[in-house]
Amino acid sequence: MFKEVEAAYERIKETVNSTPVMTASTLDEITDSECFLKCENFQKTGSFKFRGAFNALSQLSLEQKKKGVITHSSGNHAQALALAAKLLGIKAVICMPKNAPSVKVAATRGYGAEIVVCGTQPTDREKTVIPLIERYGYTLIHPSNDLKIISGAGTAAYELIKEVGELDYVFSPVGGGGLLSGTAIATKGLLPSAKVVGVEPENACDAYQSFKAGKIIPVENPNTIADGLRTSLGSNTFGIIREKVDQIITVSEEEIVDAMQFIWERMKLVVEPSGAVSLAGVLSKQMGLESRRVGIIISGGNIDLTGFFAKIRRRIKSSK
Description:
Layout (H helix, E strand, L loop, with lengths): L1 H11 L8 E2 L2 H7 L2 E6 L9 H10 L3 H6 L1 E4 L3 H13 L3 E6 L4 H9 L3 E5 L5 H13 L2 E2 L6 H7 L1 H10 L4 E5 L4 H13 L4 E7 L4 H8 L21 H10 L2 E5 L1 H15 L5 H11 L9 E6 L7 H13 L2
Helix pairs in contact: 1-8, 3-5, 3-8, 5-6, 8-10, 9-10, 10-12, 13-14
């Protein structure tokens, strides 16, 4: 599938943002390694998801584009598909769980997508989507298990390696597995000896369990602040991960917050919990990274800051 990642890069490179790779001497000192952060929080719609969405929609037939597309997502894929559809003149319907972050719901609606609300259980999304596909003929663009989504997601690691060269390790968050799958394909295609490590919250560790067991173990009632990583692996992503990923590790909720705090305070980067999970994996020191060159995919920066700014406004009012 490496050729598909290369083709995806050529297809989308004029539309997506070529996101910056950033470094921090303090991070290098803490880890005793040389770290390179691929900052997809600077991507259009605030996450890597736009890469896969635009790649997938660009390859639809005229008939499919005419009928429209549908997906289910708690936020980042929803926003990405909504914007990609808007740019390509395609109707987009997004099924979002009722507990999806309000900032992501508002952004998705702002890009012009039609939102259908569903329940919060893992099976609720597909139960809502299937009747709509049968009725209107929409094309389903799965958030992670679609091969075109995977190829598009892999262009982030592809860009990273093309820019910085040799890497010993590449860390990526894992939820549904689209980003980790694409990262593994791109990394192994360019650097066959590099190690690819997936990082997952302990409270939503289905990928970790599936990787160890050799079969898909669906997530059950995940309770993690990394809302973008609450979904289970799919058949395509699991197959790629089993073949190309070297290890999956887990991190605690506290470690995720610590990673967020580090990247906000030391690097001045607004990163969401899901986006900080890969850095949390590096900071956890579960892997021997001493004197290594380490790539870290920062997957997104869509976080609700309403409460933060409301607190500042209250402080201003109280001081008058």
